Amino acid sequence: MQIRKVSPLKRALLYTVVLSLSFIFAWQVTGHAATTVTFGDNTGDDGDDFPGTIEDALIWEGGVFLNYGGTGTIPVGEGANLGEASRSLIRFKNIASHLPDGAVITSATMYLFCSSEDSTTDHSVSAYGVLQDWGEGNLSGGFGFDICSWNYFQYYNFLWKAAGCDVASDGTGEDSTADRRATAEAGTLITGTGGWFTWDLTAAVQNWYSYQWSEYGVQKGLRLPRGH
After folding, report:
1. Is 68 part of any domain?
2. What's the pTM value of the predicted model, to 2 decimals?
3. Which of 46, 83, 84, 151 has the fewest CB atoms within 10 Å, i.e. the most exposed one?
């Protein structure tokens, strides 16, 4: 996953978090020593040594049919000028094929770097498990089939249950009547720019690894009242 040029759209958003990406797995197989592997080094590495596939995409209320899977940043919040909400989707695919059989995930931490913000107020950014099989795409504000946007998780055949991946439920299964889980996997307080922030995704990675969940990834969400 390469860091790509940040578009003017991203600079107008409340939070623009550059996808660095460092993702640290620790696992253990019964009868064997614990193993820890770091993908990325938290110093600006783009995470391209992750052995599986990393996908990410912005969905933006100001471009309800447009795909932003090729922009290379992970914005969340509302635009300081326009007020449209933005959320970002991230997923890590093919995890099980790169871990040994019988592994128990003892920790899995995602690191993201905050490069800019339009507010000096600290806000919590949460990660929610996604329940629909969204398509990443590689556009920077364009139309394409079978890829995600604010209105669609796969344009133009499959709509989110509510625009913006917004129907939440802990009681429904994947590919069903909700877009994401209601209970966050993790939340982190963003306290300023120029720093790394972490999300503990241990439980989610264990579920992806054991195929209890499909690898639909997480939604990064910051929900604010209008005007904030």
Report:
1. yes
2. 0.83
3. 83
Q: Which domain holds residue 159?
A: 8-221
Residue 2 placed within a domain: no
Q: What is the DSSP letter of 177?
A: S
Instruction: Tell me how many domains the chain contains.
Output: 1
pLDDT in tens, 75-115: 777 765 556 888 889 888 888 887 788 888 888 888 887 87
- Is 98 inside a domain boundary? yes
DSSP helix/strand/coil, 159: strand
Taking Cα atoms as reference points, which of 66, 105, 111 lies closest to residue 84?
66
Give the start-end residues of each E strand in the chain: 15-28, 35-39, 53-60, 73-78, 85-93, 104-117, 123-129, 152-154, 158-159, 186-190, 195-200, 218-221
In a domain, 227, yes or no: no
